[in-house]
Amino acid sequence: MKKSILLIALVFLAGATFAQFTVGPKVGFTMSKLKTNFEDVKEEARSGFQFGAFARFGKKIYIQPELMFVTKGGIIKADDATALETKVKLSTMQIPALVGFHLLNLKVVNLRVMGGPALSFVTDKEIKINNVSGTIGEKNLKDAIWSLQLGGGIDVLMFTLDVRYEWGLNNIYDPQGGTTYDMKSNLWNVSLGWKIL
Question: Which domains does the chain have, with CATH numbers?
Answer without folding.
Answer: 20-194 (2.40.160.20)
